[in-house]
Structure prediction request, 385 residues.
Amino acid sequence: MTEDTPLGPLPDPDGDDELSPTARQLRDALAARAAGARPADRLEEIRMTSRSNRRRSRAWVAVAGAAAVVVVGGGGYALTQRDGGDVTTVAASTSPSPSASASSASPASPATSAASSAPEETPAPDGTSPAPRGTPRSTPAGSVATSAPAGAALPSGSATVPVYWLGGSSPKLFREYVRAGDAGADDATRALRAMLAGGPGDPDYTSPWSADPTATVTSTGGRLVVDLAASAAAGRAADATAAVQQLVYTVTAAAGSSDPVEIRVDGRPEPTLFGEAVARTVARAPQADVQAPAWITGVTPGSGSVTVTGVGTAFEGTLLYTITDASGAEVAREAVQAGANGTFDDFSFTAQVGPGTYTVAVVAPDESGGEGATPLADTKGFTVS
Prediction:
């Protein structure tokens, strides 16, 4: 109803206009009340109330789903960022309640899916560096922010730990998984000590650091604190900035954290490394700025074939691989898809080759028409019997 409807006095039921004073007052009061009533459209109000209820319902579902993902396979898990931005799950120190464990056992639950996608670190074949099985897909640096609570225990007990090395004339970071000692230490400390000790599996990789078996990593106040001896960073480095990023990437990858790194030398902040002053706290530089555009994580020779896996990024995601024999003759050349335009992602390919000794190289092709720097390739040797 969109127009006002006039309402007069209520009719006399008997038609004799002989109402008592009380009845007449009541009739007139009701008539006045009715005259002031204005009908309203409640449809929009009802719709708004319904939408609000649905939003509250969805919010509770989202909270419940997030809680379910935290409880996986009888143990607590925390979503972390490691290995150049890769998102993995790292076992936490707490255990779920019996009811939570029971609810996570359903094959269709989000928790089961999260557990099945978590990579397991396994040694790679002879001649290659150990690599994680089921390497997760990378994400752009900064897209996932993960931080361990202040003073939290760092992950420990991994069979292998990630260590970054330098390679190329303008040093870039390459990652290997290594079997590290110091079984009683946390993974970040083990990875740091392995990096300082040197000895990359690929002879093309280098490191300017020196051994320090007492170096440590702790988590406190929203940062990772590295304490090492002055002798570990003595002398000069070809690129001190790259060397510092090598340390930062190694420590944060092994810790499963994106926290900035505070570097102390013999317990003192504001360190000098390789003769250069370094900021007290250093964060990871963007992946595309410091990581090699492609590196090989595994080479598996088979019967008349070889399977190669790795991580990389290239224009429109297209890397190039070549395989050469012992004489240097090229026996295979193909494109392979990885991450695109600065976003790192996994790649894998299988090539058919006969018995013999070979070298496989993976590179991000030069898109500058020869005007840019020579593309940086990663190479690995292998033998097919």
Observations:
- The radius of gyration is 33 Å.
